[in-house]
Amino acid sequence: MTLExxxxxxxxxxxxxxxxxIWVRRLAELGLRIGTVVVPLHRTAxxxxxxxxxxxxxAVAGAALRRIxxxxxxx
Amino acid sequence: MSRGLRAPTASVASCHGDQxxxxxxxxxxxALVGSPNVGxxxxxxxLTGARRSVGNWPGTTVEVGRGPWAVPGAGTVALxxxxxxxxxxxxxxxxxxxxxxxxxxPPEERPDLVVVVVSAAxxxxxxxxxxxxxxxxxxxxxxxxMIDVARRRGLVLDVDTLSRRLGAPVAELAxxxxxxxxxxxxxxxxxxxxxxxxxxxxxxxxxxxxxPEDDLVAAERRFAWVxxxxxxxxxxxxxxxxxxxxxxxxxxxxxxxxxxxxxGVMWLVFQLTTTVAAPVQQGLGDLVSGPVTDAVTTLLRxxxxxxxxxxxxLVDGLVNGVGMVLTFVPLMAIMFALLALLExxxxxxxxxxxxxxxxxxxxxxxxAFLPLIVGFGCNVPAIxxxxxxxxxxxxxxxxxxxxxxxxxARLTVYVLVASTFFGSSxxxxxxxxxxxxxxxVVLGGLLLRSTLLRAFGDEPLVLDLPRYQAPVPxxxxxxxxxxxxxxxRTAGGVIVLTVTAVWLLSAVPVSSVSGSFAHxxxxxxAFGAAASxxxxxxxxxxxxxxxxxxxxxxxxxxxxxxxxxxAQTYAAQEPGDLHDPGALGTALRSDFARSSGGxxxxxxxxxxxxxxxxxxxxxTITAQLREIGLRWTLVGMAGQLGVAWVLAVLVFQVGRWxx
Lengths: 75, 659
Description:
The complex is a heterodimer of chains A (75) and B (659).
Chain A: E1 12-17, H1 21-29, E2 37-43, E3 49-53, E4 56-60, H2 62-65, E5 68-72
Antiparallel strand pairs in A: 1-2, 1-5, 2-3, 3-4
Chain B: E1 29-34, H1 40-48, E2 53-56, E3 63-71, E4 75-81, H2 93-104, E5 113-119, H3 123-135, E6 140-145, H4 147-152, E7 155-157, H5 159-166, E8 170-172, H6 181-193, H7 212-233, E9 234-236, H8 243-252, H9 257-302, H10 309-345, H11 347-360, H12 369-375, H13 379-384, H14 392-401, H15 408-422, H16 426-450, E10 462-465, H17 473-507, H18 526-534, H19 546-557, H20 562-569, H21 582-595, H22 600-613, H23 618-658
Parallel strand pairs in B: 1-4, 1-5, 5-6, 6-8
Antiparallel strand pairs in B: 2-3, 3-4, 7-9
Helix pairs in contact in B: 3-7, 5-7, 9-10, 10-17, 14-23, 15-16, 15-21, 15-22, 16-22, 17-23, 18-19, 19-20, 22-23
């Protein structure tokens, strides 16, 4: 599943991302790195989502969310 | 970008706004860097006492602030507030400038010391930049902010361990409460005293990679280092992020309530910058045109110059110009205070999320909505409001589009012309002007996106949402005053000089038989001659008459003066009620009928469209000069004039054909 389709409030682990490398790095700088546990929170106007990364919150557009694959966090 | 913070010649170191003075030889420079939302600018103001000179870096539209900082033991140093950056791998011109001034300039032009501002509440995120500063061997000190927020989140920091792992001094700060500045000054003083050769050296021990693949590998290595530092120096107590923040976000950014709330906030901003500012502006205008003018006139009379050219120059030129600048003060103060409030509270980032998708259709991020909305009140604060946009390219594009938003000053002309020519349909015509205004912004954005400013708006929205916080009145006042003072310094002089120049033109007779200096009918003055010269340009649009051309020339200085200019050139009473133009309306109907060959309606409509699209006013131009520089201001003016003329001709010719 993708970060766009993941259920709200359930922690997921980022597996892959096929965004351009510049955006992969920017997301990583904001904490959304491969292997990181994040929590997809509520949906926003415009089709995006607020994603929880630890205590921080990052708004990500739907187009980017659809290109980030995630799996449920087993822990 | 090859010139550093201590550029040796003033010619390359001038800003578009305030003059950027190079640091004198031997003067010490400290660069303040950090990612957005860590309190960097607040810290800068606290350290420099808000004695901030702000300007665009030479050759760019990127803003850099500088101010003196008295460091006990080290004297006064130049503190430079570099644009916010998450890392030294830039994705915007602002971030590119930060990288350039830190690592791409020759070593002798680099800062003596870098103060990296790091948020204790998001340590992992902030330390990536620190890892790169270390990697490049730049001497640095860490300023740790938001410790109170970290504590509330249950994070306990071991500052000694953090300092040891970073290999640099760490000073705990509370810039919003003015705390910790002494500790930072002490750390900076010690660091400056240390031999630069003993500065922190690269922990990774490798030259930073240039290949993109290597770059990602290096990034992973840095992240691993950051994780190790965070694990060693941060302990989490039970508890967590205040759930209330997420609950607020759920409402503020939601698909339905979010846009409605945003529109409500924008309505409030619009009202405050127009309705609330208007009576204060009126009062200041009356003060200048009444008591101040009377006082100057009385003084001149005592000196025996009560009615000559000197009175005209001082009263109608200089005093009038100063009055125009003063009337902008309440408007700009309210605008800057609101900007500071929206930014400081954390709402602006949420507003950007809500409007992002809509604005991206014209190649702009969501935040651009704010200046564009404000533009419908007044273009001048709207141009200044482009500073809410973190990307210099977006600021440039928005500043080029703002003049197409129909400000309230244009409304007075719409009402007069529409009432004169369209009777009971006047309201529809005025509404049409606002529709045209919105269309011009949208089409202008699409055009810019596909021509001059390609590849905008393709990047996905990835936006850090800062925590909500209660604004501190003292910080709001400092931010408002800093911006207001900078506006008055740069725009004030230009406005006064231009208003004086317009008066001079209208005072100079074109021939000796027309009259003497300052005692000449408008038509026989240099101004009248210029209007007559320009009039034929408007023949294809149906209003090729010197009265109309003269009104448009005056309108280029201030749209508020268009109606009074007509009243003066027609020697008619300025109508008290714009819906009932009286003798002025009769004169306008007569001249428009003559210049348009009997097609007054299309000619009047063409005039309104031209008035909407061409140069808004002198104050807007000066604001643009300050924000985007001379070259882009001239490009914008040429574009506005071109669009205005083509549209006006199109409207008249099609209207005449349909009639």
